[in-house]
Design a protein that fits this description.
Length: about 475
């Protein structure tokens, strides 16, 4: 292994520093939330009312997506399976630890402590998902040291953006279309732009898949597909809102899946299916319904959004990804712009349309709960009338549908701008030579950072084996003659 990419000192030193910082901050600021604090429990407390039983199923589902779904999905390269899965494991574990702190510091602003409970872990997992989506843009071209630095900085930028958007712009984004998918996409593209490798624009010899790596990647797709309804519905209001979110996500995923199969066969020159389409394009519907997932958009709209998202995602892989690499100096390795960017934009527009069309005739009084910023402000007589119908309804900002739509648009623009700028800055840091960046020749190869088993076949061994087989076939033909 080249000394410039050795992890012997770099990785342990970075991890040690991060652990010291995290331990110190946890010791000073992190405490239990009310549902995890034994001091607040008594004989009047019903254990089954604990938030654990409401939130843990969603936490567990999203964990499966993070560690198994993303991990397997990113293991599609023949020589990069160890790295795809294990670097995902490493990055995700650190990102969740770090996100608990960074997101929690906005609680510190109010009462001086970070109150840790299952819901905090769930929010940290969503922040982690942002990092893992961005990771897809630079898959195969970065070291684990670079990825930890990327997670460190991206969580910071994400938490600030999330706080600013939710506190000052105030939007409806139940499925995380704007603050997760769009942010992650354009942050990853910003990093990729800075880490551009012109010699890899026409491909790399190791940038290939295998029969088994493709099967493993599809397993990741299936885990993501199955648990995506939990991802989209975890933070919605319990009851009918959450019910609709699950229904819409399943319908969107279903329609995008069958559309992906048909498009794959249609655009294949030999009329066959392409595994890359099955691994990625089938998931597009889960993103496309995200911005309006808890709204009364109707099942047919969810189905149509799944078809639209799948089509945009498929065409993006076919035409947009090469264009970005050749003309924009953005090598989007896993096509995150197609699965999260294009579909995220469609989803955001659909969400704006749903907001503009929302009326009390369709939603009833609950409209002011779903679109909380449209609820009457404090002191408005209508608020008192609505609170009689919906106990616990909080005062809103009195926005009209048009006002809220404009705020949604502002959130989209500001989120993309903040994430792209943050990605460029992070890329500049990741480009520093001492962070063990692999050379062009060593990209997409597990041997650079792992002790590989004896049955690991290198690209040179595969080539020599092919040459030997070809020579053997020629010798057999000569002997027959």
């Amino acid at each position: 292994m080249k000394s410039s990419t050795s992890l012997k000192m770099r990785l342990p030193a970075l991890v040690l520093v991060l652990e010291i910082v995290i331990i110190a901050l946890y010791a000073v600021f992190v405490t239990y939330d009310d549902d995890a604090n034994a001091k607040l429990q008594n004989n009047q407390t019903n254990p089954m009312d604990n938030a654990l039983y409401r939130d843990y199923p969603y936490f567990a589902d999203v964990q499966v997506m993070i560690f198994i779904g993303f991990g397997c999905l990113l293991a599609f390269f023949r020589f990069y399976g160890f790295s795809g899965m294990v670097f995902n494991f490493l990055t995700a574990t650190f990102a969740i630890q770090w996100a608990i702190l960074i997101q929690g510091f906005f609680q510190f602003y109010y009462d001086g402590k970070i109150h840790l409970g299952v819901i905090n872990l769930l929010n940290a997992e969503f922040a982690c998902a942002v990092v893992l989506i961005s990771f897809g843009a630079v898959l195969g071209k970065t070291s684990p040291v670079q990825l930890l630095i990327m997670a460190l900085l991206e969580i910071l930028v994400f938490a600030v953006t999330e706080w600013a958007v939710l506190k000052y712009i105030r939007i409806n984004d139940a499925g995380g279309t704007i603050l997760i998918h769009l942010f992650a996409c354009y942050f990853g593209l910003g990093v990729s732009f800075v880490l551009y490798r012109p010699r890899l624009n026409n491909g790399h010899p190791k940038e290939i898949t295998s029969y088994h790596s493709d099967i493993l990647s599809v397993m990741g797709t299936l885990f993501l597909w199955i648990f995506w309804p939990s991802f989209n519905s975890a933070l919605t209001f319990k009851g009918d809102d959450q019910h609709r979110a699950i229904l819409h996500t399943f319908i969107g995923l279903s329609s995008s899946t069958i559309t992906a199969f048909s498009l794959s066969a249609l655009f294949n020159k030999r009329g066959k299916l392409t595994m890359a389409d099955i691994q990625n394009v089938t998931l597009a519907g889960g993103v496309t319904v995200g911005a309006s997932v808890d709204m009364m958009i109707s099942p047919v709209a969810a189905y149509a959004l799944g078809v639209m998202g799948c089509t945009a995602c498929f065409l993006g892989y076919k035409y947009m990804t090469p264009f970005l690499a050749q003309r924009m100096r953005i090598q989007d390795q896993c096509g995150i712009h197609n699965l999260h960017g294009l579909t995220g934009l469609i989803s955001s527009i659909a969400g704006i349309c749903a907001i503009l069309l929302a009326t009390e005739e369709t939603y009833g009084p609950s409209m002011y709960q779903i679109f909380s910023h449209r609820a009457p402000p404090e002191g408005d007589p209508k608020l008192l009338e609505l609170q009689k119908l919906i106990p616990g309804l909080k005062p809103g900002l009195g926005r009209t549908a048009r006002d809220q739509a404009l705020y949604q648009l502002a959130a989209i623009v500001s989120t993309i701008a903040a994430s792209a700028a943050g990605g460029v800055f992070t890329g500049l840091i990741m480009k520093l030579q001492f962070l063990a960046s692999p050379s062009d020749e060593d990209c997409f190869d597990d041997q650079l950072f792992f002790d590989v088993p004896s049955d690991f076949a290198s690209i040179e061994e595969l080539k020599s084996g092919a040459i030997s087989n070809e020579k053997g076939n020629v010798d057999k033909a000569d002997s027959k003659v």
